[in-house]
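User: C-alpha cells for both sequences below?

Assistant:
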Amino acid sequence: MVVIKTCDSDFEQKFKELLGRGAMDMEHVSSIVAQIIKEIRSEGNKALKKHIAKFDGWEPKSAEDLRVDPESMQKAYEELDAGLKDALHLAFDRIKSYHEKQMPKSWIDFDEAGNMLGQKVTAVDRAGLYIPGGKAAYPSSLLMNAIPAIVAGVEEIVVTTPAPENEINHLLLAAGHLCGIKKMFKVGGASAIAAMAYGTETIPKVDVITGPGNIFVATAKKMVYGDVNIDMIAGPSEIGILADESAIPEYLAIDLLSQAEHDEMASSILITPSNELAESVRETVYIELGKLERELIARKSIEERGAIIVTETMDEAIELMNEIAPEHLEVVTSNPFELLPKIKHAGAIFLGAFTPEPIGDYMAGPNHTLPTGGTAKFYSPLSTENFIKKSSIIAMSEEGINEIGEACALLAKTEGLTAHEKSVKIRLK
C-alpha cells in the first residue's frame, strides 16, 4: 500500500491515477454484451437457457427451471438460525424506516386567481432488481433494493440472480421471503438485464432496473437505458477515509480492508495530515491482511488500488477527497461534525470513530447501493425516488389564463408556433 505526500514532485501524476480508479473498459465487452442483448430480444427463453448453460454451469430444461419457487424462499427463512433471523428483521425494519422518511409527497397548491399547480407521485408498475452472485452472495443487496421499491408502492418486483451450478445462497432465499418476493429468476449477467429490459416468455419486462454487478452487468444497463430506467452505472466498491492524529490506527486499517476484501478492483484510500498515523495504519494493514479469509483478494486490492495520502492540512485533505468523491467516506477526526459542511461529494458519509462503513452496508438504514468511481459528484444513493415518477398537475381558472395568457401567446408567437399562440388566445376575453 503506497504512502504518497502532496509535497512529492510526482504527486499530481499519482493522484490522477487514483482519480481513474473507477474507469471501466466497457469497449472490450460491449460487442459481447450487445450480442447477448440481441439474442435475448429475438430468442427469449431459448437464449436464456443457452447463456445459463454457458456461464453458470447448468442447463434449464424448461421455463419452470428458471423460476425460484416462493415455497423454497419460505423454507429457507423458516430454517434460519434465530439470531440470524432476528438480524435480518432488524435490518429490514431500520432500512424501511429510513426510506419511509425520504419518500417524496404529492402536493397541490392554489393561488388567489384559483389556479391549481401540483405534483403527483406515482410508483412504477414493475421494478427489476439485479442481485449479484458469483464470488459472494449478497442478501443485504436484496434488502437494500427491494425495500425502497416496497416503500415506493411498486406493485410487482422482479428479482434476477445468478445461480452457479443451479444453487442459490440460502440467506438470499430467506431475504426474498422476508421482502415478499414472488418472482425470482435464476439468471445473471447481461442476460438478466436484457431479459428484464425487454421481457421473455417467462421473465416480464420491467420499468426500472436497479442493483450492482460486474462490468457485463454495468455495460448491459448502460445499453438498455432509455428503453427502461436504471439507477446508476456502478463500478468496483471503494472507501475513502479522512482522519487526524486522534484516530485509532487499528480501526482505520480494518475499515480499509473491509472494502479491499470485496474484490481485487476495490479501492481503499486514506487521507490524513498526520505522518505518524499514515505509517501506523500502513503497518497495521499488512498485519491484519494475513488474518483475513479473503486475504488474496484483499492483498491484490490493497497493493494495486490502495493508497494513503499525507497532506499539509486537513483542509487540503478535504479538498482532495472531494475531488475523489468516494462511494463511502469515513470522517474519523476529533470533531467530525465540524468537517461535514465542507464535504461536497460522497455517496455515504460516516461520521466518528464508532461509525464503520460496514454498519451502513447492513444495518444503519440508509441505502448501500451507492455511486462509485467519482460519480458521487452527480449521482445519489439508491432511494425510493428510483422507483417513482412525478407528474406535474396544472389547472387554470378563467381569471388565471386571462392574467398570464397574453404573455404566453407572445412567447409562442416569437418562437413561430402560431397554433400554440392561437390555442391560448382563443380562450382569452
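Moving on to the next sequence.
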Amino acid sequence: MIFTTTTAEDFNKEFEEILARGKMDMAHVSTIVGGIIQEIKKDKNSALKSHIAKFDKWSPQNDEDLKIDIASMKKAYEALDESLKNSLHVAYDRIKSYHQKQKPKSWFDTEENGTILGQKVTPVDSAGLYIPGGKAAYPSSLLMNVIPAQVAGVEKIVVCTPTPDNEPNELLLAACYLCGVTEVYKVGGASAIAAMAYGTETIPKVDVITGPGNIFVATAKKMVFGDVNIDMIAGPSEIGILADESANPSHMAIDMLSQAEHDEMASSILITTSQKLADEVKLEIENWLVKLPRELIARKSIEERAAIIVAQNMQEALKLMNDIAPEHLEVATNNPFELLPSIKHAGAIFLGHHTPEAIGDYIAGPNHTLPTGGTAKFYSPLGVENFMKKSSIISFSSQAINELGEACAQIAKTEGLTAHEQSVRVRLN
C-alpha cells in the first residue's frame, strides 16, 4: 500500500495500475444495454414496465404508475426534520449562487467596416437528469443536477430515479419538491437513459442527459450520445491528496476513507513528501475503519484500490498527481495556494487543512458531479454550460463584403466549390 518512488522496484508497474483505474469493461454489458435500448425504442412504455418488473421487483399497472405525483414530494418535504430541511436550503442557496456566476453571456463586436460578429447563448429546451434511487439515494446529486439546469433556463426538466419495490426514497422526493421539480419518473438503469433519449408515451425525449450511475447507466449514456448530449462518462468515485509534513495523519486517513466508503471500486491515493506521515496515515486508516458502519465496503476499497506514495519532493508529487488527474484533489500543505499554478488536472481542488472533500459534496457550492478515472485531463465538472449551447452571429455590411469577399472567393475556388465562390462574387461591386 505504501510505495516510495526511489526504492520500490515495482513502483512503475503499480503506478500504471493506478492510471488505469478508470477503465470500465463496458464490452461485457454493452450487449445487454444495447438490447434494453432497442426494446425501449420499439415498445416504449410496455418495455419500461417489463424492465421495472425485472430489475426493481414491482409491476406498474398503468402508465400513471410510472410517475411520482407532486403531492408525494410535498408530503416528504413537509415531513423533514427542521434541521435537515434548513441544511438542504443552505445547500440549495449556495449551489445556486455559485452556478449563477458560471452562466455564459451573449456578446457582439462591431468592426469599423460594419461587420458584426458575436455569440448567442441559449439554453436547451429540455434536460433529463438521472439520479440514483432506492436505499442509496443521494438528494445532493439531485440538487447538483437540477440547479445548473434551472440557472441555465431550461424549460423542461425530467428526473428519472429507480424505486426498488416501488418505494421511492423520501429524502430524494423532498429534495425534488425543494427544487420545484414536477416531473419525476420511477425508472432506473439503462431503461431510464433510453427513455429520456428517445421518449415513450409517458417520458418525453430530452436534449441533454446528465447524472451519475453504475456501469449500465454509463454504458447507456455512451450509446445514446449523439442522439442527445450527455455530461460525461463517470466511473467510481476517487480522491487524490497532496500532503507535506504539516498534514494531520488522522485527517488524511478519514479523508481517504470518505471515498472508500462509496463502494469497493472507489480509489483513494495519497502522495506525500513525508515518510513519517505515510506510516502514520496507514495506522490511522485502520483505527478509523473499525468505526465505520460501511467498514466492509471501505476496507475492500482500501485493500484493493488505495495507495500511499512517498515522493522525493513536491515537484515529483505534483507530476504524479497531474498524471493521475483525480476527480477530487485535496492539497494539505502549509502553503497550498503556492502549488495551485502547478496543478493542471483535477475535477475539483480543495485547498488547505480545513477543506475536506466532503464539504464540496454538499455545501460549498461548486458541483460535485466531476470527471473520474483520469478524464479530468479533458472533462470539466457539471455546470451551467452543460445545459446551454452557443450560436455564432455574423452580419456583413456592403463595405465589409467588398473588403473581404475576394479573399473568401479565392479560398472557395481553390477548394473547387464554384457555387460557394459565386455566392460571394455576385455580391461584390
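User: Anything stand out in the second?

Assistant: The two ends are 75 Å apart (CA to CA).
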